[in-house]
Design goal:
By secondary structure, the chain is α/β, with parallel strands linked by helices. It has helices at residues 14-26, 37-47, 63-71, 90-99, 112-123, 148-158, 164-178; strands at 6-10, 30-34, 51-55, 81-85, 103-106. Strands 2-1-3-4-5 form a 5-stranded parallel β-sheet, with helices on both faces.
């Protein structure tokens, strides 16, 4: 079961996959890499990651087909899928969006940091910008509001990194620092 910090990268370019893996691990994520579409789809089924970083051009099964297959399963309908493509593949990008990609990025113009930020926003949409994510639209852009749901999501995400008292202390100090309300 996903803890909120397990990410699956599906990319046949080892150098690109390692760059994203390093950035994600620096941010505290646990990362697995699959090098083709068939292996990636199998790992999604077996490991139920919290999010997927998916190249659209893959051997065996392409990224759009993977998105279609996972969106067809109820348990993965809300799984964040960040798709990566090259600018010249406009049709494939459009197909990925139609199939249910959460976001699509151009590999050439997006840094690993941009991708990590998008993953954080997709995993924790309720958190305000002070946590490094975009504030939820329901509270207005830039609202200083931390819902109980967001509090629990952060606590669950951090459970593998520290004890409950430390999580509570960290969250409360952040709430006080940013002027958020619970």
């Amino acid at each position: 079961m996903a803890t909120g910090r397990n990410i699956l990268i599906i990319d046949d370019d080892a150098q690109t996959a390692r760059a994203y893996q390093e950035q994600l691990q620096q941010e505290g994520y646990s990362v697995q890499i699959a090098t083709d579409g068939r292996e990636g789809f199998y790992r999604i089924q077996e490991n139920a990651p919290a999010a997927v970083l998916l190249d659209l051009m893959l051997p065996e099964i392409n990224g759009v087909e993977i998105i279609k297959k996972i969106r067809a399963q109820k348990r993965f309908q809300k799984l964040p899928v960040i798709a990566l493509s090259n600018a010249f593949m406009i049709n494939l990008i459009n197909e990925a969006v139609e199939a249910g990609a959460t976001k699509v990025f151009n590999k050439a113009s997006s840094s690993p940091r941009d991708i990590v930020s998008a993953l954080g926003s997709a995993l924790f949409p309720q958190l305000p910008a002070e946590f490094g994510f975009t504030a939820g639209q329901s509270q207005g852009a830039g609202a200083k509001y931390l819902s109980v749901t967001a509090f629990l999501a952060v606590a669950a995400a951090l459970e593998n990194f520290c004890c409950a008292a430390s999580v509570l202390s960290l969250l409360m100090s952040t709430v006080l620092k940013c002027g958020c309300s619970l």
